[in-house]
Amino acid sequence: MKLPIAAALLSIAMLPFAGGAQAHHLSSKEDVEVKVDKNKSAEELKALWDQFGGWCAIADWHPAVKTCEEIKEGDDVFRTLTLQDGGVIKEKLIEKGDSTYTYAITESPLPVKNYQAQFSIVPDNDAADEVKILWTAKYDAADGKKDDDATDTIDGIFKDGLKSIKEKLGKKAD
């Protein structure tokens, strides 16, 4: 599906997070800025969300994810991601809006714990003709793991995913 997007800006920003109650609190942020027609920005935002923002849409755009299965347990909604290498990640949907969702990892082989993330597609506050695809996370290194290993892993996951989104939008990735 081709979206009527004029151009994708190839900027990816890494913003370290300082703060929080724990000394080893880490954060990762990745974004893609997408140029849109000012008169069609709401329509284009919805089209982007329809393509990339569904709870299990990650299986369509993230190269490490082989399949995604949505599971309901009582009132809670989870997704089970089966990775290309056979690993499995279980995530719980915490909150969902029209163009954003927040989730937590409940089971994973990743070197992180206390992981909570948000995926959003939102208008850019700095430019009326742009939207941003944002993916942010807060987490701690898993017990016995180094902070750098946790950060490198999550940053790599984010970069690979957003690079794939850029490619699906028909833009050359960094």
Key words describing this protein structure:
single chain; 174 residues; alpha+beta; Alpha-D-Glucose-1,6-Bisphosphate, Chain A, domain 4; eight-stranded antiparallel beta sheet; 3 helices; 41% strand; globular; disordered N terminus; START-like_dom_sf; Polyketide_cyclase/dehydratase; signal
What is the level 1 CATH name?
Alpha Beta
Oligomer category: single chain
Distance between the termini: 22 Å
Low-confidence stretches: 1-24
Structural class: alpha+beta
**CATH fold title:** Alpha-D-Glucose-1,6-Bisphosphate, Chain A, domain 4
How many structural domains in the coordinates?
1
Count of alpha/pi helices: 3
Quote the beta fraction: 35-45%
Largest sheet: 8 strands, antiparallel
Widest sheet: strand ordering: 1-2-8-7-6-5-4-3
The H-and-E topology, N to C, reads as EEHHEEEEEEH
Protein name: XoxI
Keywords: Signal
Signal peptide: 1-23
